[in-house]
Amino acid sequence: MDIQTICVVGAGNMGHQIALQAAISGFTVYCTDINEATLQKAKDFAAKRLGGRLEKGKMSAEEVDVIKGRLNFTVSLETAAKDADLVIEAAIEILDIKRKLFADLDKICPPHAILATNSSYIVSSKIADATSRPDKVLNMHWFNPALVMKLVEVVKGPHTSEETVETVLEVTRALGKVPTRVNKEIYGFVANRVFSAITKEGCYLLDQGIASIEDIDNAVRNGLGHPMGPLELLDLTGIDLEYNVLMERFKDTGDAKDKPSPAIVERYALGKYGRKTGSGFYEYKK
Ligand SMILES: NC(=O)c1ccc[n+]([C@@H]2O[C@H](COP(=O)([O-])OP(=O)(O)OC[C@H]3O[C@@H](n4cnc5c(N)ncnc54)[C@H](O)[C@@H]3O)[C@@H](O)[C@H]2O)c1
Fold first, then answer.
1. CATH number given to 191-275
2. Residue 211 C-alpha to ligand 1 middle, in angstroms?
3. Ligand 1 center from residue 28 Cα (angstroms)
4. Domain ranges of the chain
5. 56 C-alpha to center of ligand 1: Å?
6. Which CATH architecture does the domain made up of 5-182 adopt?
């Protein structure tokens, strides 16, 4: 493995934490976003999180300085990607935006660079042909919050070389994560397919008035031993994301059972996206 420099594209919910995790793990990181305010937020988050570790005695002042020195933020995709050995794209979940980004990255990055998408549902075979290096394109799927969750799914597309998969499995371990290798592309990969079955049922039970939000989450937490119930987890991952994912799926399949449920549609329409907006299934203090 000769991955030293990682470019993270998109500094939102996922990207800002992936970038920090990579810097903490010893990689040189360039984090980029089209939105300057988002980048500033990502920078402030990193400073605060590292400051916290310093205060708790988990890191020395020198370590914090070294990590900060490795973590670069820029609005320029060119600057962020030109020396990358690995790109982790964590931009908005819209296929056309990702295809355009991968075409641009293909032109900017060195020929050996691996281009990975963190997309939860867009398989890399929908993107790989926008580049001249499909053998180096795959899904590298992190979980939210990326600093905390250990799992990264490494998904081999039909175009992805074995060498690329092996390299990304190795980088994943070097990033302090535990990879699950997914041998074939499938909608939702592994963990989210199981999660989706549970959230769908949670929303169905709520829509039918069978149980309250709190009681549904309570049943899953205390009956199944999950750390979080499905509805509180949707608040964490984002109801807007869930809505967009389900609508994209519905557009693909035309199957009414893939449509978002009323519990999701109503909250989406009201801008109640979950924790990020202060309100979703639950209310959050600012
Ligand atoms: N939120 C989750 O729980 C989660 C978990 C795993 C994977 N993902 C995947 O990660 C990706 C990002 O999700 P998110 O929740 O972080 O979204 P987000 O909306 O929080 O962040 C996306 C960021 O991408 C930026 N962006 C948009 N177009 C861009 C471009 N052309 N160049 C650079 N930046 C651009 C936006 O400004 C925004 O800051 C998606 O593909 C999603 O499927 C999300």
1. 1.10.1040.10
2. 33
3. 21
4. 5-182, 191-275
5. 31
6. 3-Layer(aba) Sandwich (3.40)
Which helix (H) or strand (E) segment is 71 a member of? strand 71-74
Q: pTM here? A: 0.87
Atom of ligand 1 nearest to the CA of 142: 6
The residues carrying an active-site annotation are 120, 141, 153, 192
Tokens 């300057």, residue? 36
Give the C-alpha separation, 133 to 139, whole Å. Answer: 14
| Residue listed under structure tokens 């990193």 | 46
Q: What is the CA radius of gyration of the chain?
A: 19
Would the CB of 149 count as within 6 Å of ligand 1?
no
Which residues have C-beta within 8 Å of that of residue 235, sequence separation ≥ 6? 274, 275, 280, 281, 282, 284
What is the per-residue burial (b if ≥16 Cβ within 10 Å, else e) of 8-22?
Answer: bbbbbbbbbbbbbbb
> How many whole angstroms from 235 Cα to the centroid of ligand 1?
16
Residue among 43, 102, 241 to mutate when testing ligand 1 (max atoms within 8 A of CB): 241
Local confidence pLDDT in tens for the 286 residues of the chain: 699 999 999 999 999 999 999 999 999 999 999 999 999 999 999 999 999 999 999 999 999 999 999 999 999 999 999 999 999 999 998 999 999 999 999 999 999 999 999 999 899 999 999 999 999 999 999 999 999 999 999 999 999 999 999 999 999 999 999 999 999 999 999 998 998 899 999 999 999 999 999 999 999 999 999 999 999 999 998 999 899 989 988 998 999 989 999 999 999 999 999 999 999 999 998 7
**Distance separating the N- and C-terminal Cα atoms of the chain:** 43
Which of 8, 9, 14, 139 is the best mutation target for the ligand 1 pocket, counting ligand atoms within 8 Å of the beta carbon and taking the most? 14
CA-CA distance, 242 to 263, in Å (whole number)?
11
